[in-house]
Design goal:
By secondary structure, the protein is an alpha+beta fold. The chain has 14 helices and 18 strands. The protein is about 30% helix and about 25% strand. The strands form four sheets. An eight-stranded antiparallel β-sheet has the order 13-12-9-10-11-14-17-16, sandwiched between helices. Strands 3-2-1-4 form a four-stranded parallel β-sheet. Helix 3 runs parallel beside helix 4 and helix 6 packs across helix 10. It is globular.
Length: about 400
């Protein structure tokens, strides 16, 4: 089988060799030089460097029409290039999710429409264009979220205390910049803990999943440089059923998923879903809990080499795993000067992994949750969700990046 990978996620995050036999198949990786450089030197594959000046679709298409190249699969494991892969599949008649199907899990307006139509609760929402035509007709009046309908990692997300203040902020941005109304949505803010559900489906049936709850928020991580983490908790039959209904609504029948919901008491409110594996250390903690490497099974499904037997939901580990990340992009200093208050946590018996940048290393200027890029990341294992939640909160309260002028404690 000839396989084309739109290669955007660094190789170590996916470990393609665990899901694709590179001897049995001819695999071509196409990406910008910096990401192609993450491929293992001894990996049996073809490497194609694209300029990175245009979209993955445009540059891949231009390369593909240069010669008689034919691929049986065109795959992207990056949320940002799922649509590029779908467009290429349609252009060259390659099987796989269509542009319509991928749009359903990339466009938050479309996905919430579909989930609401299935009878599940979603936040009330409007396209930003419709909202700005009649802000006074908005069906809610309280806290309001403005965000790109196809964004990720809380980039360009704003939360305002009222509908009126949200409309005022948009008006000011329209006066000061070329704001693209058609690229954004507004959504009522629902207060409550946010959970993420990660797993794999095949033939529309959940093969395995974990349930986790965030400590901190993605928005605070991105905007204010606050740490973020999550811890695993029990997946109840009712929650498994709810997740299954949400996945069916957005037509995720085969592959990995990362679904987020706000808990309004005991009731989940659908927030968004990705047809991909979760970021940060979701893949690692999922494997520790279940024994399953999500990207590998995702790739096997892309190649139609499915897991053999259905998996029962009781196979997860009784231990509670969690992950944490401290950002560097919002720190005033350019280099890492160490951590204050970290000794007790670094030596904790709960630590499974602890990745800390060396003193003097450059702090990333972009948002990242990746080990060896973010100044501090790690994984913990505790006996219960309550213990994991308390441990992470204590970590976030007790540890901070040192200013360059202070000694490391």
């Amino acid at each position: 089988m000839n396989i084309l990978i739109l290669h955007r996620v660094p190789y170590a995050r996916i470990e393609y060799h665990r899901g694709i036999d590179h001897t049995a198949h001819h695999v071509t990786y196409l990406g910008v030089q910096a990401i192609i450089d993450t491929l293992p030197a001894d990996l049996n594959c073809t490497r194609v460097v694209r300029p990175g000046l245009s979209s993955a679709f445009d540059e891949a298409y231009a390369w593909l029409i240069q010669g008689p190249m034919c691929f049986d699969r065109i795959i992207s494991m990056s949320e940002y290039e799922l649509l590029d892969a779908a467009r290429l599949r349609e252009a060259f008649g390659v099987p796989g999710p269509s542009v319509r199907q991928v749009s359903l899990v990339r466009n938050k307006l479309l996905m919430k429409d579909a989930v609401a139509a299935s009878g599940l609760r979603v936040p009330r929402f409007l396209s930003l264009d419709a909202f700005m035509q009649r802000p006074d007709a908005c069906p809610w009046s309280g806290k309001t979220v403005i965000k790109p309908h196809s964004g990720a990692s809380s980039v360009d997300v704003e939360v305002h205390d009222s509908v009126a203040l949200a409309a005022q902020a948009v008006s000011q941005r329209m006066d000061n910049s070329a704001l693209r109304l058609e690229a954004f949505e507004v959504e009522e803010f629902i207060d409550g803990p946010v959970r993420h559900f990660d797993g794999l489906v095949q033939h529309g049936r959940i093969y395995e999943m974990t349930s986790s709850e965030y400590v901190g928020t993605c928005l605070a991580y991105m905007e204010h440089g606050e740490p973020l983490g999550s811890f695993q908790m029990e997946t109840t039959p009712a929650m498994r059923e709810w997740v299954g209904k949400a996945l069916a609504a957005v037509e995720i029948r085969d592959g990995a998923f990362h679904l987020e919901a706000i808990m309004d008491g005991d009731n989940p409110v659908f927030l968004e879903v990705g047809h991909r594996v979760g970021g940060a250390d979701v893949v690692a903690t999922f494997e520790m809990a279940t024994g399953i490497h999500l990207p590998s099974l995702e790739l096997r499904i892309h190649l139609h080499t499915y897991p053999i037997e259905p998996r029962e939901p009781s196979n997860a580990s009784p231990d509670c795993f969690g992950w944490f990340a401290f950002p560097g992009h919002a720190h005033p200093d350019a280099t890492f000067a160490g951590l204050s208050g970290a000794t007790a946590f670094r030596d904790s018996s709960a630590i499974v992994q602890w990745h800390e940048l060396p003193i003097g290393a450059a702090l990333p200027r972009h948002v990242t949750y990746s080990a060896h890029e973010a100044p501090l990341t790690g994984i913990v294992k505790l006996a219960s969700p309550n213990q994991a939640k308390a441990w992470l909160r204590n970590l976030f309260d007790g540890v901070a990046l040192c200013p360059a002028t202070e000694a490391v404690a």
